[in-house]
Design a protein that fits this description.
- By secondary structure, the chain is mainly alpha-helical.
- It has a domain of about 230 residues.
- It contains 14 helices and eight strands.
- Strands 3-5-4 form a three-stranded mixed β-sheet.
- Strand 1 and strand 2 form a beta hairpin.
Length: about 350
C-alpha cells in the first residue's frame, strides 16, 4: 500500500494553523458554498462508489486474485440483490382447495353402509364396533360423531340419531364440537367415561372432557394438535390455525402419525389420518395424497375402516368412531368446505 509523504508545512503545523484561522474567521464556511457544486459533481461521478469499484476491477491483478474470481464476486452481489428483492415482494395468495382427482364415491357409500349396519334399532343408537365391545353404545364420541358425518353426507339416519340423543341429559363432549364450528376450551381435558344405562346385554356409555386435568403436552398428540388448529380456525385466528396444522403434520412420518400415543403402542391410529384431511380441507390446504391413500387402504369389505395399523398392515377391527371421522374427511374432499 502507498502512503503520501507529508510536506514540511504539515510537519511544522502551519497547515493546521491556517485551517483553524479560516474556520474561526468564517472563510471556510464561505468557501464551502462556492465549492458545493464541484464537490457534488465529483462525488456523484468519478469518485462515486460504482466508479471506484469499476476502477478497482481495471487495476492490475495482485495477490493471486484473478479477474474470473472478481467476476464471480460481482455475480454473487447481483444474485443477492435480486434475492433480497424477491423476499420483500408480496406472497401469492394460498391455493384454493380443489376436489381430489380420485373417485371417492365408492368409499363414501361404503362408509355409509357400515354406519347403517351399526344401528341397533332396540336402542336407537350405533354400536361401538363389529367385534370389540359389540354391545357398547357411546353417546359421545361415537354417536355424536356419526351425526356429524351422516349429516355431511345428507343421510336421514342422522335425524333419527339426533332425536334419540335428546333423550339423554349428558354434558357436551368438550372437544369434538370443534368439528362443527363450536368453540372449545383449550388446552383440552382428559376423558371422563361414564356408564349411563344397561339394557340386558347392551350398555350405553358417555365420554366428556369437562372436568379432567388439562393436556399440557397436547402438541405431542397429532389429534389434539389438529383439534387445536381447528379451534383456532373457528375463532378466525387463521395464522395460528395454519401454524398448529403444520405442527401436527410434522408428526406424520409417511406411514402414519408417529406421535406420543404411537410411541407407546407402536401402532398408528387411522382416525388421525381422516382428521388431518378434514382439518386440511377446512384450512384450504392442498390435500396430502399420502394421507388419503393410507386412509383408503384401511377400508375393509364391510365399508368400515380398521382402527389401527402399522407398516405391515391393519390391526383390530372397524368401529363407528373411525368410520365417522373417515366419512367426514371424504365428504369434505369430495365437496371442498367453505
Amino acid at each position: 500500500m502507498l502512503y503520501r509523504r507529508p510536506s514540511w508545512k504539515t510537519l511544522l503545523g502551519v497547515t493546521k494553523a491556517k485551517r483553524h484561522v479560516k474556520r474561526a474567521t468564517g472563510i471556510t464556511a464561505v468557501q464551502r458554498l462556492f465549492r458545493a457544486p464541484k464537490n457534488f459533481e465529483r462525488r456523484m461521478g468519478y469518485y462515486s462508489e460504482p466508479m471506484k469499484f469499476l476502477r478497482f476491477l481495471g487495476k492490475p491483478v495482485q495477490v493471486g486474485i484473478t479477474m474470473a474470481l472478481l467476476a464471480q464476486i460481482l455475480l454473487v452481489i447481483i444474485a443477492f440483490f435480486f434475492a433480497a428483492c424477491t423476499v420483500f415482494t408480496a406472497a401469492p395468495p394460498p391455493p384454493t382447495l380443489q376436489p381430489v382427482q380420485v373417485d371417492l364415491e365408492p368409499a363414501i357409500q361404503g362408509g355409509l353402509r357400515f354406519l347403517r349396519g351399526q344401528y341397533n334399532p332396540d336402542l336407537g343408537l350405533l354400536r361401538e364396533s363389529t367385534q370389540v365391545a359389540y354391545h357398547r353404545h357411546w353417546l359421545a364420541t361415537d354417536n355424536r360423531l356419526a351425526i356429524y358425518a351422516l349429516s355431511a353426507a345428507n343421510d336421514g339416519l342422522a335425524d333419527r340419531l339426533q332425536q334419540r340423543m335428546a333423550d339423554f341429559q349428558v354434558p357436551p363432549h368438550g372437544l369434538i364440537e370443534a368439528l362443527v364450528g363450536q368453540d372449545v376450551a383449550w388446552p383440552p381435558r382428559t376423558e371422563t367415561q361414564t356408564k349411563i344405562a344397561v339394557y340386558g346385554t347392551d350398555e350405553i356409555w358417555h365420554e366428556h372432557r369437562q372436568t379432567g386435568s388439562r393436556y399440557e403436552d397436547w402438541p405431542q398428540y397429532a389429534d389434539l394438535a389438529l383439534y387445536a388448529a381447528l379451534d383456532a380456525y373457528n375463532q378466525n385466528h387463521l395464522e395460528l390455525a395454519h401454524q398448529r396444522y403444520m405442527q401436527a403434520m410434522n408428526l406424520f412420518d409417511g406411514v402414519g402419525f408417529a406421535d406420543k400415543a404411537h410411541g407407546a403402542s407402536g401402532l398408528y391410529a387411522t382416525y388421525k389420518l381422516a382428521l388431518a384431511l378434514y382439518v386440511g380441507a377446512k384450512l384450504q390446504q392442498p390435500p396430502d395424497h399420502r394421507l388419503l391413500e393410507a386412509l383408503l387402504a384401511r377400508q375393509d369389505s364391510s365399508g368400515g375402516f380398521i382402527t389401527l395399523y402399522n407398516a405391515q398392515g391393519s390391526q383390530g377391527d372397524a368401529n363407528t368412531e373411525t368410520a365417522s371421522y373417515a366419512l367426514l374427511a371424504l365428504t369434505a374432499l369430495r365437496q371442498p368446505l367453505r
